[in-house]
Design goal:
The complex is a heterodimer. By secondary structure, chain A is mainly beta. Chain A contains one helix and six strands, in the order βββαβββ. The model of chain A has no long low-confidence stretch (mean pLDDT 86). Chain B contains 27 helices and 51 strands. Chain B starts with a strand and ends with a helix. The chains are: A mainly beta, B alpha+beta. The A-B interface holds A 1-3, 18, 20, 23, 25-34, 43, 47-48, 60, 62, 64, 68-70, 79-80, 87-89, 93, 95 and B 251-255, 273, 428, 705-706, 733, 737, 740-741, 744-746, 748-750, 753-757, 764-765, 901-902, 904, 906-908, 910-911, 914-915.
């Protein structure tokens, strides 16, 4: 039961939010074919792989029962400490 | 018959208020303020349960939640399994307890399964898995024959068949500080915090303050102080005091669950947010480990005292006090003062403090220091059958020497104290065994959490008071813990002097005695089991716990954990601190699921959503379905005598031949507007959006990044910068989230479509998404006479095909109500989707209904819609779009603009296309099926198999003519499955849809379709065909 400090609504309980996991940037559009023989195909990993770190992770949370804004939440996966919450459009995410 | 009720005394009972109750069919008497445990003991019953594995008779060990064995099946008034008898308080305003034991057959008093105990040598730790999961029993499925029988022997109570009659409440609360416990430390802390103006939440498991003092003789000064504090604090508005409330769980971000249980049956789950906590939770007394220590009549020394002082119940006539802690003397003195003979104080320590020796001698109590108990005589020859009293206790010097026999009918154990710090350990606080002081201590304290009183290692009342106040000061001053134990406060007689020798001496005894020396009463774990775990290499605490199940019973190891780790330390030859402490998990005690759920039960878990027309459908006798996202929607409207199929086929015929009316209000509907609405929709939809003329629309597929279809709908252009997007009802919430995520997260980091690699921030997207699904009632008029019906009801739009073509939207009035009308079709017929304000939905529907009879209008449910979409070959989410299928698999190339700059899923589809027809990676493709028999529709999900021999290397499967084959490896060669199949009233035959590997290149071939028959699977034959059965050119819907 986390408390998430929403920049728009104030601190709210996590049951107002939906989390969709790590804040990944979208995949590039020009990845239209498999790489040539001998080159590692990173596509499946970029599509389905997740870091699942022990430590800090940047996640996307949607404040669905509040302002309906997407937020980037920096959360520690062991202590569940939340270091920062930013509007998704301003946040960095990870490539 | 050992215990009896004293003629006077008992602080917590009211003798003027007798309460009777029933246990195993017999009626017992107690007083208001008794527990079931104290009342039964007061009437001389000692055996209250049978043990989990060996069916040994068991009594009451402790008076709190730590008691592991006296578990009750509550039959009335509020049925529940496995409730400790110590937690059932008799109250004359809630009479009528009816109870059974949870184990023992026919009863706990005479258990015919007691023979199991005599086979205990055959039932060591791990026996169950080594034997029944081993090769002998698992071979040939023997395990499945024995399992039900074994399961009946094992286990505890039975779940009640009906829901609890008690209304479970939940309440949220916020406070600055939570104080757990109302003993001397908790009371002092609460008093100080309240006086400082702190918003305080103060819980205690007991009915009145006192903590451990509830078990002790009167202390008038302290009791008066506690009364004054509660009176003072109850008057303060910023203090919430909750007696009879147990703090269960300490969870993330200051979230604490507290369980309030009042004697009248009222229950409430407090959901508390609190940044700072003081744990003044006291300590739990440990049992001594010696042979036969589990006999009924052997209990903790604090429990013997608590029975005397709280309930005026004497546990025995003649008592032996066995200890390695000074609490033993307190118990002996209290017992003597209440007229109980004390046969001896047996202590495993070689010597005790001279002051205590003198006190014992003055009271005439014989001290046997350096002695241990080697056995208890009592019970009957077949220990399992019949009640088991105690006759005598055998003791022997631990250093060797002759044994003695002490006549006694009760034993008290004082094995030292384990601080009750589960709430600390549950989340971010560690526990460690401190070898210097021989005690369990907090290893670290998280910020804002302090431990006070006996839980912090203090013993005397004044020390606990001072420590509680110190904790309050530390909390207010944000001083990090842990606070050291003040040595000045721990010195003096009747202190906790640290540990005695512990249970290690039992390891030197013979194996027969070790098998009768219990460490964990709850799961029948003995010294022999711990030794076996050590021999087999399960030395780590978490391994020890799982291998022997020590600490995993109902009581969660409250009395057993420390004895277990001290035994393991002795076996490993290391200090106990090196063994470690296994993690304690929330909740603190077993909680009924209903308590946690509160009002989130039955219909309130997911409240049903109703359209503006739900009441109308129900009045017409429609059978209502859940149709995604918990919407209630008509499945079909049966007429008298009609089956589902009859009704659905009649409704289909109405639509195909005349006109039907369908409530499609649950549809997901979104308005997307703003200058950047086009780039947003281009990214989300696989079709082209930007070139749509105002008033026109397209079929829109919404894909995930991996190209899988997750929703489909239509997108229409309402204005230059205004669009209308629909999706399926069940996915509407997911689509809303996705639209906002693309708008707020994905697109702002692309400086050109699809390119998210540029670090340059781009200006915010000027587009808005409004979820308007519930604002509009959506009425679908479908069938060749739709146009006539609209004219009949009054519509100011030009409905001619040239003016209002297929896939167009017009705004006008229908039946006098402003409406947005779309020409889309899910049935394949001429169709108008009329959207009006939700508040007008019923009026427009009834106007259409009233005008309709002359045209043959019928109301249509989702069953008929399902049949029609299969006839037409339209995909349905969760049938064909199963989460793995891409639009290319489904033959929807025409709905995908692969050459537009970007949409989500585009890259994945390009890769799929590039490797198309790779024989090593056949994709399932969407096809139709024609049945070649007359056996009715195929089963949804049925496997498709190639004809034998059609695929090289395919294993044998069932034939279409032969006997059924049981499921076998051949099933792994399934090449697809049936996604939907119905009898088509339009075509007069069975049709089906399927996903089949390389299906598009197998049109005209036959496949075998499995079907369930008694004894296995049989195959039917079907011909692969195009997945469109009705009007393949779409002339009807464009008409």
């Amino acid at each position: 039961m986390f408390l998430i400090p929403c920049p728009w609504c104030g601190t709210r309980a996590d049951h107002e939010f939906i989390c969709t996991g790590e804040a990944r940037r979208p995949l590039p559009a020009d990845e239209g074919s498999a790489p040539p023989e001998g080159v590692t195909d990173t596509w499946p990993d970029r599509l389905y792989g997740r870091d699942n770190p022990r430590g800090w992770v940047q996640e996307l949370w949607w404040h669905v029962h509040g302002c309906q804004q997407w937020l980037q939440v920096d959360r520690h996966t062991v202590t569940h400490e939340i270091a920062s919450v930013q509007p998704a459009r301003d946040a960095g995410g990870r490539p | 018959m050992s215990g009896w009720r004293l003629p006077r005394g008992g602080r917590e009972i009211d003798r003027a208020r007798p309460v009777s109750f029933e246990f195993e069919g017999r009626t017992f008497e107690g007083f208001h303020g008794d527990t079931v445990a104290s009342a039964l003991l007061g009437q001389g019953l000692t055996t209250l349960g049978r043990s989990f594995k060996r069916h040994r008779p068991r009594g009451v060990m402790g008076l709190g939640w730590e008691d592991p064995c006296a578990l009750m099946q509550v039959l009335a008034p509020d049925p529940a399994p496995n409730v400790p008898a110590t937690q059932l308080r008799l109250a004359d305003d809630r009479p009528g307890f009816r109870l059974d034991g949870v184990k023992g057959w026919p009863s706990t008093q005479s258990d015919l399964l007691g023979w199991i105990d005599h086979a205990h040598g055959l039932l060591p730790a791990g026996f169950y898995y080594k034997t029944f999961m081993g090769p002998f029993f698992t071979r040939r499925g023997a395990w499945h024959r024995y399992e039900p029988w074994i399961r009946r022997l094992a286990g505890l109570g039975r779940l009640p068949a009906t829901a609890s009659p008690v209304a479970m409440q939940r309440q949220y609360a916020h406070a600055d500080v939570l104080v757990v416990g109302a003993g001397p430390a908790g009371t002092a802390a609460a008093q100080h915090l309240a006086q400082q103006g702190c918003r305080l939440f103060w819980v205690d498991d007991g009915p009145a303050p006192g903590g451990r003092l509830r078990d002790a003789a009167d202390d008038p000064e302290t009791q008066a102080w506690m009364r004054d504090v509660t009176t003072e604090l109850d008057a303060l508005p910023h203090v919430t005091r909750c007696p009879n409330t147990l703090a269960l769980s300490r969870l993330d971000h200051g979230f604490v669950l507290c369980w309030e249980r009042q004697d009248d049956g009222f229950e409430r789950l407090w959901r508390l947010r609190v940044p700072k906590i003081i744990l003044a939770t006291g300590a739990i007394e440990r049992p001594m480990v010696f042979p036969d220590n589990d006999r009924p009549g052997v209990m903790l020394s604090g429990a013997v005292r608590g029975l005397l002082h709280r309930h005026a119940v004497a546990a025995a006539h003649r008592l032996v006090v066995v200890g390695e802690d000074d609490a033993a003397l307190d118990c002996a003195l209290d017992a003597r003062a209440h007229g109980i003979d004390v046969a001896a104080w047996v202590d495993t320590r070689a010597t005790v403090h001279p002051d205590l020796q003198r006190q014992a001698a003055d009271a005439g109590i014989r001290l046997l220091a350096g002695h241990g108990v080697t056995g208890i005589e009592g019970g009957t020859r077949w220990g399992g059958v019949g009640a088991a009293g105690i006759r005598a206790v055998q003791v022997r010097p631990l250093q060797g020497g002759p044994a003695q026999r002490l006549d006694a009918d009760g034993v008290a154990m004082a094995g030292g104290w384990t601080p009750a710090l589960a709430l600390l350990n549950q989340l971010d606080g560690a526990l460690r065994w401190d070898d210097d002081v021989g005690r369990l201590r907090p290893g670290n304290l998280p910020a804002g959490l302090h431990v006070a009183g006996q839980a912090n290692g203090h013993w005397r009342t004044e020390a606990c008071r001072a420590d509680g106040e110190a904790a309050a000061r530390a909390v207010l001053g944000d001083i990090p813990g842990p606070r050291a134990v003040d040595p000045q406060l721990t010195i003096g007689p009747s202190i906790d002097p640290g540990p005695g020798p512990g249970p290690a001496w039992v390891l030197k005894e013979n194996p027969g005695l070790q098998q009768r020396a219990f460490v964990d009463w709850g799961h029948d774990v003995t010294v022999a089991d711990v030794a076996l775990a050590h021999r087999e290499g399960y030395e780590a605490v978490e391994h020890l716990k799982r291998y022997t199940t020590l600490g995993m019973a109902v009581d969660q190891g409250k009395t057993s954990q420390v004895n277990g780790l001290r035994l393991m330390a002795a076996l490993r030859g290391c200090p106990p601190g090196e063994v470690g402490v296994s993690r304690l998990r929330p909740p603190l005690v077993p909680v009924p699921l209903g308590t946690l759920a509160g009002e989130d039960a039955s219909d309130l878990i997911r409240p049903a959503r109703e359209t503006p027309l739900t009441a109308w459908h129900q009045a017409q006798g429609a059978v209502m379905y859940e149709s995604g996202a918990n919407w209630r929607r008509p499945g079909y409207y049966p007429r008298p005598g009609e089956t589902l199929t009859d009704a659905a086929q009649r409704e289909v015929r109405a639509v195909r031949q005349a006109v039907g009316l369908y409530d499609s209000s649950p549809l997901g509907k979104f308005e997307v507007s703003g200058p950047d609405a086009v780039p947003l929709l281009e990214a989300v939809c696989a079709c082209r959006v930007g070139d749509l003329a105002i008033g026109r629309g397209r079929y829109a597929l919404m894909l995930r990044e991996d190209g899988r279809l997750f929703d489909d709908g239509v997108v229409f252009r309402l204005g230059a910068q205004r669009f209308w997007l629909t999706g399926t009802a069940g996915q509407a919430d997911a689509l809303h989230a996705w639209l906002e995520q693309v708008r707020q997260w994905h697109l702002p980091r692309m400086d050109r479509p699809g390119d998210a690699t540029s670090p340059t921030p781009v200006p915010p997207l000027r587009a808005f998404v409004s979820a308007v699904g519930a604002q509009w009632a959506t009425l679908v008029v479908c069938g060749p006479r739709s146009r006539e019906l609209l004219r009949l009801v009054g519509c100011d739009l030009d409905l001619e095909r040239a003016a209002f073509p297929f896939m167009a939207v017009r705004e006008g009035r229908v039946a006098g109500v402003p409406a947005r009308v779309f020409r889309v079709s899910f049935t394949g017929e001429l169709s108008y989707e009329i959207n009006v304000a939700a508040s007008q939905g019923r009026a427009v529907w009834e106007a259409l209904w009233t005008a309709g009879p002359s045209l043959g209008l019928q109301a249509v449910g989702s069953e008929a819609n399902h049949v029609m979409r299969i006839e037409k070959g339209f995909i349905s989410l969760a049938h064909e779009a199963d989460g793995a299928a891409t639009p290319l698999d489904l033959g929807l190339h025409w709905a995908v603009a692969l050459d537009k700059p970007f949409f989500f899923g585009q890259a994945a589809l390009r890769r799929q296309q590039a490797r198309a027809k790779d024989p090593a990676h056949p994709r399932p493709e969407w096809v139709g099926l024609q049945a070649l028999d007359d056996e009715g529709p195929f089963e949804e999900g049925a496997q498709l198999l190639a004809e034998p021999g059609a695929v090289a290397g395919q294993a044998r499967g069932p034939s279409t003519s032969g006997a059924p084959l049981p499921a076998g490896p051949w099933l792994h060669h399934a090449e697809g499955f049936v996604t939907a199949s119905v009898f088509s009233p339009t075509l007069g035959r069975v049709i089906g849809l399927a996903l089949l590997e390389n299906g598009r290149s197998r049109l005209g071939q036959t496949v075998r379709v499995t079907t369930q028959v008694a004894g296995g699977l049989r195959a039917r034959q079907a011909r692969v065909c195009e997945p469109v059965f009705h009007d393949p050119r779409g002339e009807a819907m464009r008409g």
